[in-house]
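re the bet — no i am not wrong, look at it urself. input seq straight from the record:
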Amino acid sequence: MDGVTGGAADIILTGGTVWCGRGLPMSTALAIRGGTVLATGDDATIGALAGPATRHVDLAGRLAIPALNEAHMHLLPYGLGLSQVNLRAEEVTTLDEVLRRIGAASQQAPKGAWVMGRGYDHAALDVGRHPTAAELDRVSPDNPVFIRRTCGHMGVANSAAMRAAGVGHNTPDPEGGVIERKGGALTGLFQERAMRLVLNDVPVPDEARMVGAIEAAGRELASLGFASATDMNVGMTAGMAEIGAYERARAEGRLLQRMWQVLAANPEGIAEAACKAGLRPHAGDEMLRWGAVKVFADGSAGGLTAAFFDPYLASAGGGTGVFCFPDETMHRLLAHYHREGWQLDIHAIGDAAIEQVLSAMEAAGSDDHPLAGRRHRIEHCGFVTPNQRKRMLAHGILPVPQPVFMYEFGDLYVTNLGLPRSEAAYPMRTWLDEGANPSASSDCPVSTVNPFINLYTMLTRRTNKGTILGPDQALTLEDALHCYTWAGAYSQFAEARRGTLAPGMDADIAVLSDDLFALDADALAERVRGIACDLTLVGGAVTHDRHGALAVSG
């Protein structure tokens, strides 16, 4: 309470548990003034900071934490996807259901309009394979269809979509992409950069629709306790217009999270055009910051396109995956954007892809442009070797993993890669112990954005089928929350302003329906997937209020 001056608190939360951050004292109450944390302490001490206009929240035994940070997701695509056909494995486990949903959407769409679906998992379908163009043709003969696999690294087009895109049986595979053929005929499956052949023909949404999608996605995230998020590949849906959509959402008060924006820097992306238009690293404000660029190195382990030194199991199809670019191109791209001052947020899942990216980052460093302090990131970084971890740590290169991948795809990893590699994947405990500051994230819409599933996975290392993979990599509750709060802020150069609830920090707060710290280990694992977020504050402003504890305000 020392140094608390300047008048009464704007908001006081009392009567519960306040987790202020890893290593900080627990409290029962918290006061907010001017958008920042004024003080934390016991109920009586914090209650004394109230004035006539102070608003009160009775925690009633609930848990308040620093609001969550979604360090790797695709916010605009997620918002747009809310109006696409939902094919996620939680709801869709048969080929017939995929086709039924696509057929129903096609019947409702105007003739010739595109029908888009998202989230199917071929390994979770009863047929154990991808749908085919011929099957999609049967339910949608007059509308072009494209459905993405859950990983986002491959998808299936029907014949109308391939005709619209000008893809035929003799169309060559593009660099870093595969057009699947069987017996010389197109199956409809497009992998990695080959998807652009189809997606480039999909009509882009206008600015108003994009702003609406940004707001809709933001409301979903706010309802789950997120005050910060990312869009990890800005420009791959509507080009430079996406920058304008975000700026408009910010200006109209429809941006509900503090955004760390990552420009698409593959050659087909917009990073170079944005730079030429004057956008510079760290431009923006605390609600919308343009900080990084993204390049893809490989695909997904579930889709057999993540690049490995050792091959996938022969029973899964073998092969070592797909590199999106040769080494020379990767080195050139990363060196260029490193010199320009951007943080490098580079997608690499398999150990061979991680090696390519890490070597390119190391080569980009120089006396004039050192790596130290740049906080470059390897996104996903799922199957990393001990030597690679050591080198990343030496250069301050951060892993940005998605623990939820173990929950949703862990059993498929075992099928594709075997048990030893799967148990060592996404080593959260090792990263934390080594001081690598791994953030927790979802890659939504690849995986569910529900943070409580992610917390469950970090606590248990259980898949959605109950398989335990690498129990030595499980985290404590405090460590798991640390990865979802402070570590995410650190990856965005924001740890001095958010990620804890120390006095002076931004009042970005989530109130959860249960006090997780009051539960023993067994009860915690049983309960955590079913809890909810009751209240979310961003700078003291309410973005979600499940029970009406405070009047929702901007």
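see?? The first strand starts at residue 11 and ends at 14. told u. also Residues 207-222 form the longest helix (16 residues). so pay up
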